């Protein structure tokens, strides 16, 4: 009965909020409040290669099936031309093999890097887990040339699609495709727009421990038909400087980002650089090629590192990916207005590591979408003369209704 109550309660509130939204649309007095969101069901099945780990690994330990009911609610209220407020919550109901990890699973979800802990668990049932996270909660004041925002928000400074060295406040996990909005930070953000093509931005993100705080200044401008930006600040225990550009080489899109970290203590400095080329053919085929140099990445393969790519993990801004050199190639094609095919692959230049990521998406109707995705990982096997061998694969089927 307790388990059933945990399931019914969030669904009841979801219906309540949806009905409130419909009332708001019909009631002019509530027109300043906008409510949106989605409801998603995600099923996943993952399997590891038993031959990779040897004959002593039980087959039951190599397979996992997980289920997720994922609801998002976005509340936006505009009081007048200057003031607005926002609140967004993620409500997720977990079931399946992942709950067998016990405290490790719960701790990964409870971790909150902000000043205020806005994660909430409703019990720790071994079969079902209900979790709420508030990832947007801020007030904003704006005028013709200023925007000041205080609270939990996303600070998105990156320009690339896959790897963003400039995102020192809000890094994200590329493989966590079910979290499109990505994490937010507790911060004060001040933006100034002196001209149409120039802007200044100051962000202060304090932490409970002062040494974990981050603050930086960003300057953007346009010159020679390129957008440029430069940043300088402090990321936890490092002085950081960086920049980015975005423009074109003829009809080919061209972007790049870099950051340099100079530690205050005896740690080694770190340098990251990513660049990308993209192009759209006349038939609608979109292709992209990206490269990442990550000084703190590993030069050799280690299959245990792939565990860092789980959906609940986000790597550090000064160590964006597993390897020192990584190449990404992708293609995206719309077969028709309803059906989209995508294929992405990541690999190290020596081909000792390979990740393949195909997906199919189909629109079932207005605000209703179906997605199938596969993520397959291969790396060197130390038990077989370090030969490239597939390590694990995960398949996902998702149904999404937006409102």
Give an overview of the whole structure:
With 403 residues, the protein is mainly beta. The protein has one domain (2-402): Porin. The chain contains three helices and 19 strands. It has helices at residues 2-26, 50-53, 103-110, and strands at 33-48, 63-78, 83-96, 119-121, 128-142, 146-153, 185-192, 199-205, 214-223, 226-235, 238-249, 252-263, 270-280, 286-294, 325-336, 339-347, 353-365, 368-381, 387-402. It has an 18-stranded antiparallel β-barrel.
Brief account:
The chain is mostly beta strands and 403 residues long.
State mean pLDDT (0 to 100 scale).
88
Rounded to an integer, what's the Rg over CA atoms?
A: 23 Å
Percentage of residues in helical conformation: under 10%
Number of domains: 1
Total number of beta strands? 19
SS class: mainly beta
Summarize the SSE layout with pairings.
Layout lengths: L1 H25 L6 E16 L1 H4 L9 E16 L4 E14 L6 H8 L8 E3 L6 E15 L3 E8 L31 E8 L6 E7 L8 E10 L2 E10 L2 E12 L2 E12 L6 E11 L5 E9 L30 E12 L2 E9 L5 E13 L2 E14 L5 E16 L1
Antiparallel strand pairs: 1-2, 1-19, 2-3, 3-5, 4-5, 5-6, 6-7, 7-8, 8-9, 9-10, 10-11, 11-12, 12-13, 13-14, 14-15, 15-16, 16-17, 17-18, 18-19
């Amino acid at each position: 009965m307790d388990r059933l109550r945990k399931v019914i309660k969030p669904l009841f509130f979801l219906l309540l909020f949806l009905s409130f939204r419909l009332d708001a649309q019909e009631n002019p007095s509530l027109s300043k409040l906008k409510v949106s969101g989605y409801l998603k069901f995600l099923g996943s099945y993952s399997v590891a290669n038993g031959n990779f780990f040897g004959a002593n690994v039980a087959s039951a330990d190599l397979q996992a099936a997980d289920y997720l009911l994922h609801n998002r609610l976005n509340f936006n209220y505009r009081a007048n031309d200057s003031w607005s407020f926002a609140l967004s919550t993620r409500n997720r109901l977990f079931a399946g093999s992942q709950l067998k990890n016990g405290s490790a699973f719960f701790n990964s979800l409870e971790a909150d890097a902000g000043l205020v802990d806005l994660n909430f668990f409703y019990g720790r049932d071994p079969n079902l887990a209900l979790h709420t996270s508030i990832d947007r909660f801020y007030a904003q004041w704006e005028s013709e040339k200023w925007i000041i925002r205080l609270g939990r928000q996303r600070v998105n400074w990156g320009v690339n699609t896959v790897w963003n060295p400039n995102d020192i406040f809000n890094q994200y996990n590329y493989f966590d495709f079910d979290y499109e909005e990505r994490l937010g930070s507790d911060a004060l953000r001040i933006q100034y727009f002196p001209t149409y093509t120039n802007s200044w931005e100051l962000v202060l993100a304090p932490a409970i421990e002062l040494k974990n705080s981050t603050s930086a200044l960003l300057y953007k401008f346009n010159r020679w038909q390129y957008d440029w930006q430069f940043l300088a600040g402090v990321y936890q225990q490092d002085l950081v400087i960086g920049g980015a550009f975005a423009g074109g080489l003829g009809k080919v899109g061209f972007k790049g980002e870099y950051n340099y970290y100079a530690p205050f203590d005896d740690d080694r400095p770190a340098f990251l650089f990513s660049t990308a080329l993209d192009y759209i053919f006349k038939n609608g085929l979109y292709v992209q090629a990206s490269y990442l140099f990550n000084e703190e990445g590993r030069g050799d393969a280690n299959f245990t590192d792939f565990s860092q790519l789980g959906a609940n993990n986000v790597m550090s801004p000064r160590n964006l990916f597993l390897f020192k050199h990584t190449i990404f190639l992708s293609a995206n094609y719309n077969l028709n207005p309803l059906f989209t095919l995508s294929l992405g692959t990541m690999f190290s230049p020596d081909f000792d590591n390979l990740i393949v990521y195909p997906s199919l998406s189909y629109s079932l109707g207005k605000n209703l979408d179906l997605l199938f995705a596969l993520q397959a990982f291969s790396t060197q096997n130390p038990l077989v003369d370090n030969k490239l061998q597939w390590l694990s694969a995960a398949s996902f089927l998702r149904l999404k209704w937006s409102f």
